[in-house]
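ok trying again, last paste got cut off:
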Amino acid sequence: MNENWTFDVETLGTVRVANDLVSSLSQYRQFNHTIPESGGVLMGSFLNSNGALLIDNFTFPQKTDHQGRNNFFRSEAHNNLVHNIWQQSGQKTTYIGLWHTHPEPIPNFSFVDANDWRNALNISSYEGDFLFFMIVGTKSIRCWVGEKKRFRNSISLISEVQIAAK
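nice, full thing came through this time. structure:
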């Protein structure tokens, strides 16, 4: 994959996911039963007032996270990393969403994932009304967009990218 993964989000604009980010996230794929779920936070920057967004940074699994074959709990360490990256970037690189892995070729979110995402939309501090949620499977990465709305938040599958074989 030589080009960035791009997709359009209605009322937001074009979203670009850096090729390096896709490559880095794909390193955490769960190809066998000894590899636990991993996850972290997605970060990026708004490129212009028209809503163009670049997702190009992430936090990697921390020692204080809880990882199992089919579960992952993100520890508070990620919040500190996000804050430090935000400060070091001159407050340009910001919290964009969450990522984690699943041991399936084409990942789908679980009930636990949906609850986590709804909590992130309702409780987290972030710029704008959108958060992105990526799940890394063994053959593809899928991205959902969550939109904070006045009465009821929405979460929709927005795009998928195939990952090169290991």
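cool. Residues 5-162 form a domain with the Cytidine Deaminase; domain 2 fold (CATH 3.40.140.10). Residues 128 and 137 are 28 Å apart (CA to CA).
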